[in-house]
Amino acid sequence: MFKYILLSLAMMTTAVLGQSFDKRFSEVAVGTTFHYERNNGRDYSLTYLGKSGKYHRVRKESVKENFIRTYVYNAQGRLHSIKYDNSYTVRFSTKCGDAIGECIYTYKGHPKYNGKWKKRYWYDGGNLLTSDTRINEDYNHVYKVEFTTGNFLKYEERVSGGTPRWTKLVRVTNK
Q1: How many domains does the chain have?
Q2: Which value, to the nearest 10 degrees, does the dihedral of the CA atoms of residues 172, 41, 147, 141 take?
Q3: Distance between CA atoms of 85 and 99, rounded to whole angstroms?
């Protein structure tokens, strides 16, 4: 009996450690738009544009500000690159998936953020947390997050410079 309890615990741990938050585009129709509200008024939307070649594309548009970004994901749903306002493109190492645990990735794009980063997901008191930490620097943000079907953001909260910040999904529309 004790062996079966240990085996069950080991299987549960493996399932949690392997839990992935990579995008699952098969669960989202082309043209689906996720509308987000932020406490700082910088609301935005994400629209799934579909697959082009071997990559999935998602467009991010600001509601009040004038910007459009295109997020490009590989077949596994891992972020490959971001094209900012048609001015520059940031590339990510797709070896680093969004899953429980941590990994190191290299950010190349905007000079302010270039370098090696550690991405981490973990549970604390039933809450899913994630952080991005620049290696060898003091920069670190910890976010409490929730995801929707397909692993799009549902809710996020953090403290930045002593100020609480949040982003929440307010509606989903389909074309």
Answers
A1: 1
A2: 160
A3: 29
Q: Counting beta carbons within 10 angstroms of the beta carbon of residue 73, is it exposed (0 to 12), middle (13 to 18) or buried (19 or more)?
A: buried
CB 151 within 8 A of CB 77: yes
Question: Range of 105's domain?
Answer: 29-173
Token duo for residue 156:
């996020």
User: Are 60 and 66 in contact, with CB atoms under 8 Å apart?
Assistant: no
Cα separation, 97 vs 42, whole angstroms:
27
- pLDDT tens digits, one per residue of 97-117: 777 888 888 877 778 888 888
Q: Is residue 88 part of a domain?
A: yes
| 168 inside domain | yes
Interval 9-48: pLDDT, tens? 232 333 344 578 889 999 999 999 999 999 999 999 999 9
pTM of the model: 0.79
